[in-house]
Write a structure and sequence with these properties.
alpha/beta, Spore Coat Polysaccharide Biosynthesis Protein SpsA, Chain A
Length: 476
């Protein structure tokens, strides 16, 4: 079985931890790893890492690869999409790629940012779904509802499939219902939550796309011919200029609308697997440990006289007193406080933040880079102070700046600095100045993390004042 993990979402309902440049699937909320790491890890009993593929936005490609590197994930199995066209185009292109490699391949599709707490049942359901997919069915997993949920789509159970116990035709795909309708679905027991996990033969899915979404299917072979390796040491797959143009022109439609609601081959397998889409902060109630008064406390938190609240902190102390049914999320540069029942509206709040031009809506104070990260500590009209972390064996691009000088001091590790024609090796408490227009590169040639503090002076202190001459990651 081949596994396809869809990791292109922005996860704005989990702001301020999840942001556009480092979204929900790359964050740690539940379990031992980030959400995409947990997703890949639980597939391994059935899907070997060499048969795992990931689709994501090009902005998250390098960080996604870095997070999956401990599992020995191959960068050339990641497809970086130039823009979001919903799931039909993304799944269709992956199906074409896999079918071209293996005409008999069964592919399973998984969102990157969901939680499954019963891994053993999950694998058993997938094994059953694989057997059904080999008979040319399009299999969708249905989650038995536990409450009258209005935020999910539903699958209506139809007639049982002859010869297959507890396997059903899908009589109807139902949009998100109102509360009274959702309560009726719960009582009837013949409706299931649509969790977005699918299993099918790649060729079967392509046949159904050709029948029901020919405008997408007709471009897939052309798009595979437009695939190329990205520049740089982590060579993932991307589309060339023609491919980007074609992909951007495809219909913005989900695989549910494009195929699943129209095909006669769709069947339902009930899946009681401890599933949650963790769609907003209040969804942590279903998957996280709570204290004796129903609170979920994460990080450096001191809570007194609080009930049924979610308090998510990091390093600095967050002290809360007398809160009930409240969400408090503290990050270095932004704080969220909201009523728990308003968690779904955090997305609207982020839209307002972005409309007002606040960078905190999209960017973290700590910005991930393929070589490590940087954190802005302080700034003024003519200066900027950063903490820069460079991973062992990594290096920044060879670059220069027209509008600023930089002053570096090593706080931990050892640094190799190229400045024009000279090379310097700096240890802890040693410094160097990079004048305007000087070609320079910072590298960590040691075995431990390199930490430096960078003080910039100038009249343009942002990422636009970078002229790159050479880069290990193929960035312009």
């Amino acid at each position: 079985m081949y596994g396809v993990i869809l990791a292109g979402g922005s996860g704005t309902r989990f702001w301020p931890v999840s942001r556009e440049q480092s979204p929900k699937q790359l964050q740690k909320f539940v379990g031992s790893g980030t959400m995409i790491q947990n997703t890949a890890q639980r597939l391994l009993p059935l899907v070997p890492i060499e048969k795992m593929y990931v689709g994501t936005h090009h902005q998250q490609a390098l960080e996604t690869i870095r997070q999956l590197n401990p599992l020995k994930f191959s960068p050339d199995h990641l497809l970086a999409e130039p823009c979001s066209r919903n799931t039909a185009a993304a799944i269709g292109l992956m199906a074409r790629m896999i079918a071209d490699k293996d005409a008999d391949a069964v592919m399973a599709v998984f969102p990157a940012d969901h939680v499954v707490t019963n891994s053993e049942s999950f694998i058993k359901v997938l094994q059953k779904a694989k057997s059904l997919a080999q008979k040319d069915f399009l299999v969708t997993l249905g989650i038995p509802p536990t409450r009258p949920e209005t935020g999910f789509g539903y699958l209506k159970q139809g007639a049982e499939i002859n010869g297959f116990q507890d396997t059903y035709h899908v009589e109807q795909f139902v949009e998100k219902p109102d509360v009274s309708t959702a309560q009726k679905y719960l009582e009837l027991g013949t409706y299931f939550w649509n969790c977005g996990v699918f299993v099918w033969k790649a060729t079967t899915l392509l046949e159904e796309l050709q029948k029901h979404a020919p405008d997408i299917h007709s471009q897939l072979s052309t798009l595979t011919g437009c695939l190329q390796s990205s520049k740089g040491k982590l060579a993932y797959l991307e589309l060339d200029e023609n491919g980007c143009e074609i992909f951007s022109s495809l219909p913005n439609i989900s695989i549910d609308y494009a195929v699943m609601e129209k095909s006669s081959k769709v069947i339902l397998v009930p899946a009681d697997i401890g599933w949650s889409d963790v769609g907003a902060w209040n969804a942590l109630d279903d998957v996280s440990e709570k204290d004796s008064t129903g609170n979920i406390l994460t990080g450096n938190v001191l809570a007194r006289d609080c009930n049924n609240s979610i308090i998510h902190g990091q390093n600095r102390l967050v002290a809360v007193l007398g809160l009930n049914d409240t969400v408090v999320v503290d990050t270095p540069d932004a704080l969220l406080v909201c009523a728990k029942d308003k968690s779904q509206d955090v997305k609207k709040l982020v839209e307002s933040i972005n409309e007002k031009g606040h960078s905190e809506g999209k960017l973290h104070a700590t910005v991930k880079k393929p070589w490590g990260s940087y954190t802005i500590l302080d700034s003024g009209p003519d200066f900027l102070l950063k903490r820069i972390e460079v991973l062992s064996g990594e290096a920044l691009s060879l670059q220069s700046h027209q509008h600023r000088s930089e002053h570096w001091t090593v706080a931990s590790g050892s640094a190799k600095v190229d400045r024009n024609e000279e090379t310097f090796h700096l240890k802890v408490n040693e410094s160097i100045t990079i004048p305007k227009n000087a070609k320079h590169r910072l590298a960590n040639t040691g075995s431990e993390l390199l930490i430096i503090f960078e003080l910039q002076f100038g009249n343009l202190l942002d990422e636009n004042d970078i002229m790159r001459y050479e880069d290990h990651y193929g960035r312009a």
